[in-house]
């Protein structure tokens, strides 16, 4: 299959780093443009609140489901789910391969697979870190970016994102999409 290059897009992916395939692709999202430059620094969270939750880049902050990246920027949410299809992906290290996202089955489960024996780790950009924060089940403390430990940023490549008081955290791998199938 031939691929055409596209402007860089970013995938938020969940899965075993050593796996070449798996389920749970319905939890994978897409940032069609780099969310980093569109982010809001943690120390400007008060301004984001004053603006009614609308970032300077125009995206809307969701206090019940928000994202941070490795430099301490609050990011817009990716678009969920990543559409079924094939994508040329890389972690901008050594491996570039084809990611296939299959259509959802009857239960809504989406399979994903990487070609050439590549693992999710192989195509993860280790320098990009992202995590999704949602309110903790106990609800004893508010889940807010104002609770984030600002001294924990910049997160080292490959390291886990910091915990935030009052929040459940889900770390996501970040993959780069560099191509899509060429037509014809």
Number of extended strands: 11
Outline the biggest β-sheet. Answer: 11 strands, antiparallel
User: What radius of gyration results from the CA coordinates?
Assistant: 17 Å
Task: Provide the helix percentage.
Answer: under 10%
Uncertain spans, ≥5 residues at pLDDT below 50?
Answer: none
Note the total helix count: 1
Determine the structural class based on helices, strands and strand pairing. mainly beta
Net shape? globular
Q: Encode the helix/strand succession as letters.
A: EEEEHEEEEEEE
Structural domain count: 1
Distance between the termini: 10 Å
Into which percentage range does the β-strand content fall? Answer: 25-35%
Mean pLDDT: 96
Explain what the structure shows.
The chain has 184 residues and is mainly beta. It has one domain (3-181). Helix content is 3%, strand content 33%. It is built from one helix and eleven strands. The protein has one helix at residues 45-50, and strands at 3-13, 21-22, 29-31, 40-41, 66-69, 73-75, 85-90, 96-101, 112-114, 130-135, 167-181. Strands 1, 2, 3, 4, 5, 6, 7, 8, 9, 10 and 11 form an eleven-stranded antiparallel β-sheet that branches. The protein is globular and about 50 Å long. It starts with a strand and ends with a strand.
What's this model, at a glance?
Helix content is 3%, strand content 33%. The chain has 184 residues and is mainly beta.
Topology diagram in text:
Layout (H helix, E strand, L loop, with lengths): L2 E11 L7 E2 L6 E3 L8 E2 L3 H6 L15 E4 L3 E3 L9 E6 L5 E6 L10 E3 L15 E6 L31 E15 L3
Antiparallel strand pairs: 1-3, 1-11, 2-9, 4-6, 5-6, 5-10, 7-8, 7-11, 8-9, 10-11
